[in-house]
Write a structure and sequence with these properties.
The complex is a heterodimer of chains A (313) and B (257). The two termini of chain A are 37 Å apart. The radius of gyration of chain A is 23 Å and the shape is globular. In chain A, the strands form 3 sheets. A 6-stranded mixed beta sheet of chain A has the order 6-7-8-3-9-10, with helices on both faces. By secondary structure, chain A is of the alpha/beta class. Chain A contains 10 helices and 14 strands. Chain B is elongated, with a radius of gyration of 19 Å. Chain B has a two-stranded antiparallel sheet with strand order 1-2. In chain B, helix 1 packs across helix 6, helix 4 runs antiparallel to helix 6 and helix 10 packs across helix 11. Classes of the chains: A alpha/beta (313), B mainly alpha (257).
């Protein structure tokens, strides 16, 4: 399998002395849907900045599809599309002009650029707005415009820096569908997001970055398998006043009201086992849902572990 | 990889730049035309009739080349500085920075954009001047060459200003406190022969003095200085400023963190 991104010993020290990246190494395979997670200021945007050449690295090497970004500037940039965190197009230009101009920067002939412009503006539901000034677009439309702009040269690798921040649920879901479709068509996608549910839903592999270091880099499946506890909210068909005795089963539970309770069990406990537990105690369940995002628990756990390790060095 | 990608990128930047200043023509094309017309009416027509001849020409004829030159200098400079800083301010400059556009093409596109505005305003001012006097160009090649070189040099200077600017104040300081005094003291409105010897020497240190006089030579066939130095100065500044711009772009000064 081809490596889409190979980052080796990447460091970045800003002019004010802040060490944003402390020697990170990372590989993303072609065709992957990869999540780069981390708290604010962890180094995610700096890493993306280095890949897109907006941030100059202090040391280390970066390769995109096997080509060094320093020595193969044209080829690596042609393979890369970036959707930044904040709006970065002219507020005074028309939607269509923004996308057409970007195509021109990539040296695309005008006829092809016009075809691609229409293709992606239609895909992202912006074709009807093509002659509007960009400042008149809603927040969600502006984000979709940045995606259309990043795709106009059809890059093999698309990096999205918090693409769904501040976007309503309906639109977020439609963007997920679009990105999944794009990934299935062969585009490698790297996503940073604060919505961990989004990463869990979309991504196959994950890296967690904290304080300029990679603290976790594995597959989503392996990471979620490491989860040792799971908390559910159980809605009851018949009201109860007190919770039953759980016996030797290692659970902790608390009544929320007479119609629902919260229960934390070992992640290894199957759904059948859980329902058997309820059935044996005469509990009629009308609905059951996971209390918190599973990835969120792991994410916070990894950050705590990593910071403990650094403090103990 | 697209064929002719560099040329297409260059053309894209130029079209974008021209589209920008044409879109806001009320801010970019009309004010210089009005201001320069006022100069023609007040200094040329009203005051000029009392001044009499200057350098052997009617005062209105004498100041027209300098006023055209002033319009070209100010507009070439201000187009690049305001446009490029605006791109920085809105972060839309990142669009071109993440793309494979070589720095020389990026620079060339903005410079040509600035030149087009400078020359267009120069043409508008020339058109206004034709309403007041019957203009004759004595040396067309010198006139065209000097105006093109001047537009290039001041567009490059505007680009450097934009790279270092961090606020809108920073893009008005140099035009207000350096460029305008140098233009006004560059012999637009008077012949240096009217000045005392000391101020004649000071004028000789002002590069715009040579540009204005050489341009006037192209139009009228008279100048306070010989033609050669203006070309040498312009070519020298053109090469130096272009090299400095490229060096700053390659370093990412003001653009990449």
């Amino acid at each position: 399998m081809t490596t889409a991104i190979a980052i080796s010993d990447l460091t970045k020290i800003y002019a004010n002395g802040f060490e944003a990246l402390k020697g990170i190494s990372l590989e993303v395979q072609q065709g992957d849907f990869f999540a780069l997670l981390g708290p604010n200021g962890a180094g995610k945007s700096t890493t993306i900045g280095v890949l897109s050449t907006l941030v100059r690295k202090t040391s280390g090497t970066v390769e995109i599809f096997g080509k060094n970004v320093d020595s193969h500037v044209y080829e690596t940039k042609l393979d890369l599309g970036v959707v930044p965190q904040e709006v970065n197009f002219s507020q005074f230009e028309r939607v269509k002009d923004i996308v057409m101009t970007q195509a021109g920067y990539y040296g695309m002939p005008r006829k092809l650029a016009a075809e691609r412009c229409e293709k992606y503006l239609r895909k992202l539901d912006l074709w009807g707005k093509r002659n509007d000034r960009s400042r008149t677009l809603s927040g969600g439309m502006k984000r979709r415009l940045m995606i259309a702009r990043a795709l106009v040269h059809e890059p093999k690798l698309l990096i999205l820096d918090e693409p769904t921040a501040g976007v309503d649920i309906e639109l977020r879901r439609s963007m997920w569908e679009f990105l999944t479709e794009l990934n299935e068509s062969g585009t490698t996608i790297i996503l940073t997001t604060h919505y961990l549910e989004e990463a869990e839903h979309l991504c196959r592999n994950i890296a967690i970055i904290d304080q300029g270091r990679i603290v976790e880099n594995t597959s989503m499946r392996a990471l979620l398998a490491a989860l040792d506890k799971q908390t559910y909210i159980v809605d009851l068909a018949d009201p109860i006043e007190t919770l039953p005795d759980w016996g030797d089963v290692p659970v902790t539970a608390s009544l929320l009201d007479s119609h629902s309770f919260e229960i934390t069990v070992a992640a290894s406990l199957t759904m059948s086992g859980l329902f058997k537990l309820f059935l044996e105690r005469g509990i009629e369940v009308s609905a059951l849902r996971s209390k918190s995002n599973r990835l969120e628990q792991l994410f916070l756990g990894r950050l705590t572990d990593a910071r403990g390790d650094v403090a103990n060095v | 990889m697209f064929k002719n990608h560099k040329y297409i990128a260059f053309e894209t930047i130029v079209i974008k730049e021209v589209r920008r200043f044409v879109r806001i023509w009320v801010q970019t094309l009309v004010p210089p035309a009005i201001t320069i017309s006022l100069y023609f009416v007040i200094f040329g027509n009203l005051v000029g009739s009392r001044i009499g001849d200057m350098g052997g020409f009617d005062y209105m004829e004498f100041i027209i080349p300098g006023l055209i030159m002033m319009a070209v200098i100010q507009n070439s400079y201000s187009n690049v500085v305001s446009s490029f800083f605006s791109h920085k301010f809105q972060r839309s400059v990142e669009e071109v920075l993440v793309s494979p556009v070589p720095n020389a093409i990026l620079l060339g596109g903005f410079i040509v954009g600035g030149m087009v505005r400078g020359l267009l305003v120069g043409a508008i001012v020339t058109g206004m001047a034709l309403m007041f006097v019957d203009l004759q160009i004595q040396h067309p090649i010198i006139t065209i060459t000097i105006i093109l070189l001047t537009a290039v040099v001041f567009a490059l200077a505007g680009f450097i200003n934009a790279l270092f600017a961090n606020s809108f104040d920073d893009i008005s300081i140099i035009p207000t406190f350096i460029l305008t005094p140098l233009i006004y003291l560059g012999g637009v409105f008077y012949s240096s022969s009217l000045l005392p010897p000391f101020w004649q020497t000071v004028s000789a240190l002002n590069p715009i003095f040579y540009m204005v006089n050489t341009f006037r030579y192209g139009f009228l066939g008279v100048s306070d200085v010989s033609v050669g130095p203006a070309f040498v100065i312009l070519i020298f500044f053109g090469v130096v400023l272009f090299s400095v711009c490229l060096m700053l772009l390659n370093r990412g000064t003001g653009l990449r963190s």
